[in-house]
Amino acid sequence: MNDHPPQIHLHPYHLDTDGHLSRTMIVTGYPRQVRAGWADPLLTYPGDADVSLHLAPIPAPAALRRLRHRRARLESAWRTDTLRGLLEDPHRAAAVTDAADLADRVATGETRMFRLAVYITVHAADPRELDAEVHRLSALAASVLVDLAPAVYRPWAGIRSTLPLGTDALNMGRSVDTDALAALMPLAGADLEAPTGRTAVVYGTNAHSGGVVLWDRFHGGLDNYNAVVLARSGAGKSYLAKLELLRSLYTGVQAVVIDPTDEYAHLTAAVGGTRIPLGLPEGRINPFDLTGGGKQAFTQRALFLTTLITAMVGSTDPQETAALNRAIPTAYAAHGITATDPATWERTPPVLSDLVTALRRDAESSKDAGSLADRLSAFTDGTHRGLLDGPTTAHPTGHLTTVTLRHLPAELRTVGLLLVLDALWRRITDPATRRPRLIVIDEGWTLLQDPVGARYVFDLAKNARRHWVGLTLLTQDVADLLATDLGRAVAANAATQILLRQAPQNLDAVCDSFHLSHGERHIVATAERGIALLAAGRHRTVFRAVASPVEHRLITTDPTEATDTEGSR
Fold it and tell me: Any idea where the Helicase HerA central domain is (predicted)?
């Protein structure tokens, strides 16, 4: 521990405090017209910076006197230009009109005048980092038509002006009226300026300004309706996802949740949703059902069955694939269904045991068919028969459907997810049921670990937008998501990216993949539980998820609170 006080070195453009550099920027120019929350990008700047606003009321007589002098100077300059034969300066003419209008409103008591000074002190560890941070801040200020200038040869006055002392040592303010001052106040997050529609939901409160963060994933201005929620275990990603899901239901969005641990059961029951326990007899989905797909229904079924069986047995060689392509039509034909006659597609479809029977019949001429039949027998006669072998007993209908995977063995999770996603895809591609929908995949890394499952999720992420569907992928294994090309592609195909606290070993991959600034890196590395960075193109904000007491009881994952809730019902 050092006993000596910090050493402060003054430089023309910055102040050095024991190797910690600071530079103060002065707001010298403001836009002529402003709207509520116009300066929020500056006030909520994610970098290592301190922002101070110094306000002092100006008595009405003094304000009128200053405005009168200003009008006199402007009109004198205008007369001088006229005598010289110069063209009228449009900026000066606008300033004269503004000064006259402002003087009238001050005289009638409609507004008051204030002296406003805004300073921003940027901090960094070395000169190069300081210059880069100031450059980013200046670019952001220019985007909202604000001019910045450094406090040259006054770094000590600059740092004191941004400390919480209420001291304006720089004295670089300007006069503003009540309306302009009110628009500057951080009463609403910049997110409110993002396009929103009837499906907008409140995500929480802005962590910097305290304003409400409102976001609409289904607005047409976004590239797609997908979202990824990435966080370390315990950071609050499931809590946030359930809060968004519940509030989306309020707006009329239809939702389906793929729940690996059955933690959405309480929420589903509370809102009158449907729960499908995949792996139990009451949660069976028959992949042979010919529903949806239109004229290509039979062909699409055959292609999906090939994909599904490949995932079930691990892999197939070309000879086994050829045997499978022969057996699928044979299994359908045994039930009077043919590829060329759509009228037969309404008949009762076959089940997996019918396909195994067709493969065994083909085994007389192809040993590969017999080998494939033996590998599938575990799903028809063995321990896994309850998952597939039988007619469909569960249908994903209603405003909320939760498919729980808790009853599935770990080795069958990918197969179960493929079954669910296929059933959902057939439903959402039906033009007769078109509406905004959410598909939430919790712990999506379980599906992305398998190449077949990752390809299916990628195709869903790419094509969901055309069917008014938003895919939400939650995962705590961020490294696994970003380690593969398909995983990175799924993340890149999400217009809305929500990052909660990240594990230290994943920070570099997250920052590189989502192009986070130094300040944003610090946020996702140190964020408290429930605080997240929302990034969607140019819209970026840090918010805290806030739920009402009723919502909290429905979505909490705290075992103590969940037990209390169960006991009170």
Answer: 229-276
Stated pTM of the model: 0.63
The answer to whether residues 212 and 186 touch, using CB atoms and an 8 Å cutoff, is no
Q: Whose CA is closest to 412, among 280, 237, 300, 320? A: 280
Does residue 46 or residue 339 have the better pLDDT?
Answer: 339
| Three-state SS sequence of 327-390 | HHHHHHHCCCCCCCCHHHHHCCCCCHHHHHHHHHHHCCCCHHHHHHHHHHHHHCCCCCHHHHCC
Query: 498 near 227, Cβ under 8 Å?
Result: yes
Q: Please give the single-letter amino acid code of residue 536.
A: A
Q: Give mean pLDDT, residues 513-517.
A: 82
Contact 487, 456 (CB under 8 A): no
DSSP output for 98-117:
HHHHHHHHHHTTS--EEEEE
Which of 275-289, 403-417, 442-456, 508-522 tops mean pLDDT? Answer: 275-289
Domain ranges of the chain: 8-184, 201-285+392-568, 294-374
Neighbours of 268 (CB within 10 A): 23
- Secondary element (H or E) of residue 121: strand 113-124
Cα–Cα distance, 196 to 203 (Å, whole number): 13
The type of residue at 222 is L
CATH number of 201-285+392-568: 3.40.50.300
